[in-house]
Amino acid sequence: MVVKANPTTNHANADKTHTGITKIIDVNRYSSLTRLRRITALVLRFVGNLRNPNNRVTGEITAREIKAAEKLWIIGVQSECYADELRLLKSNERKHGQLVKQLKLFLDEDHIVRCGGRLHNSPLTETAKFPALILKYHHFTRLIVLYHHRRSKHIGLQGTVTTLRQYYWIPSIRIVVKSVTRHCVTCKFVIGQSYQAPIRPPLPKMRVTDHPAFTVTGVDFTGELYVKSEVSKETKRYVCLFTCATTRVVHLELVENMSTGAFVRAFRRFAARRSLPHRMLSDNASTYHAAAKEIHEIMNSPSVRGFLANHLVQWDFIPKRAPWFGGFWERLIGITKLCLKKVLRRAFIYEDELRTLLTEIEAVINDRPLTYVYGDCNEPLPLTPSQLIVGRTITTLPYDDINVDELRDPNYMSQTVLEKRSHRLSRLLEQFHARWSNEYLTALKERDFNCVRGSTTNEIKVGDVVLIHDSLKKRAQWKLAIVQKLNAGNDGLVRSAEIKTANGPSNRPITKLHPLEINTGDVNGTSPSTDDCATTNHIRRSSRRATKEAMRRIKEWNRVIATDER
Question: What residues contact residue 432 under an 8 Å CB cut-off, 6+ apart?
Fold first, then answer.
C-alpha cells in the first residue's frame, strides 16, 4: 500500500460512506484482534459471495482479506470517533480543527486518517512515517495494543510502544499500554504482584480482655535441638511453647519428637500445672491437626464428658503459611531461641540439663518487663507477667529474713494472719491487673502509629484464579487455585481466603495469592470490557437469536453498500 503524505490530495472517492462495521459486529464481545479480523473477513467474504454468486470465494482466509478487514475496522472506528475531523478533511474549508493542525491529519487513498510529520525522507516504512490515528478510549484500540504486546513477546512497556508506533498513532499511548498490559494474564503469571495487605485490624477481644492466665493460649514448636544420649551420640529434641494471649506468660515443655502422642503428653503436663485453657490457637501444622482431633475425642469420651462439660477446649487454626497471624506467640518463640543460642552456643549437653535450662529460661522470660522501665528509683517497678499470676517476680527471693525462733513458734501463722495474707495477695493481684489495663494496654497504641500502610478496600473476589506463592519452588511451578470463600474481619476487610486447588481445599492469606486477572464468573471465557465510554452486555444469547440478529445486520449492511454504489 502506498501512502500519500500530501494533505492537499484530491480525494475523489472521499464521499463514499465506509461506516457500518461497528453497527454490525460488536467489538466489545471480542478479546482478541486476530479473532475479530478473521470473523470480519468471513463476513466480508459472505457479502461478496451474495453480490457475486457466479464468482464465489472459498477456502482459507487469505492475508489480503485479513488486511482488508483490519482496514475496514480502522475506517469504522475513525468514522465513529473522529466524525468532525473527517468532515473537515473531506470539505474544502481552509479552517481546520486544533487536532487536525496539531497532528497534520490527512486522508490517504484508502480513506484512513493518518498523521503527518517531518519524516517524509526517512528510510522508515510508509505506515511508520504516517501512522493511522486511533482513539485511546476504544475497545478496538485495546485489542490492537494487546495483539502487539503478545507479538512483541510481552517485552514490556517500551517495546510494545515501539511496535505500535510502526502502524498507529494513539494519543497518550503509554497510559493506554499500561492499562492494557497490567491485565495481561501471561505477564501476571510471571511478574504479577500479590494482593495488597489491608491495614492492621484492631486487636481481638481475647488480647485486650482481662481473663485468667492461659484462658486463651497460643502454642508453637521451636526447631530441633541436639542433646547427648546414652544409647547414641546425639538425639533430637523439640521445645513446645505455650503462651497466654493476655498476660503474656510463657510455659516451655521439652518433647522427644513432633508426634501427636508427644504433644498430647506435653499438653497434659501444661494443663496440670497451668490449668485447662478455654481456647487454643496454633498454626496449621499436621501435628496440631492430629493432636486437636485426638484431644477432642478424649474430651468427648463418656468418662470425662461430665467433668469437662463446661471446660471444653476450642481449637482454632490460623491460615497456612501466615505466621504473622500468630504474632503473639511467634515473638516469644524468637525470644526463647535467642536465649538458647546465647547460653548454649556450641555446648553439647544432656537432656536433663537442657530441661533445667529451659525451666530457668521460662522464669527469666516471665520476669521480662511489659511496661516502661523508668530510670528514677522513685517510680514504680515495671509490670511483669509473673506478677500477674503469682503476685511477684520469680527470679527474686520470695521472703525477707525471718527469725528462726519465729518459725519454731506453733502460733506464728495463725488463721487470722493467713487470712490477712490471703486478702493482701488478692489486693496485690488486683493492683497488678489494674496496672495491666492502665499501663500495658495503653502502651500498645505506640506501635500502631508506626504502621499506617495497607489497603482499605477489598480487591479479591470469589471466583478469582490465583497463583499460590511457594517460597520453596520456582514461580513457574506455583500451583493454580480458585478463591471459594473470603474471610473478612470485624472491620470488613479480607485478610485470608479459602481456596480450591487440584489437591483439594486449603486456605492462604491474601498476600500469598497472586491474581491472574481471570474470574470463573466471566461469561464466554472472556474478560470484561475495559471501554470507559461503552457498556457491554455479557449475557449469553441463544444461538438461534444470535444467528437471526447477524443475518439481519448483514442484509442491512449489504443494502447500504448497494445504495452507495448506485
Answer: 383, 387, 388, 391
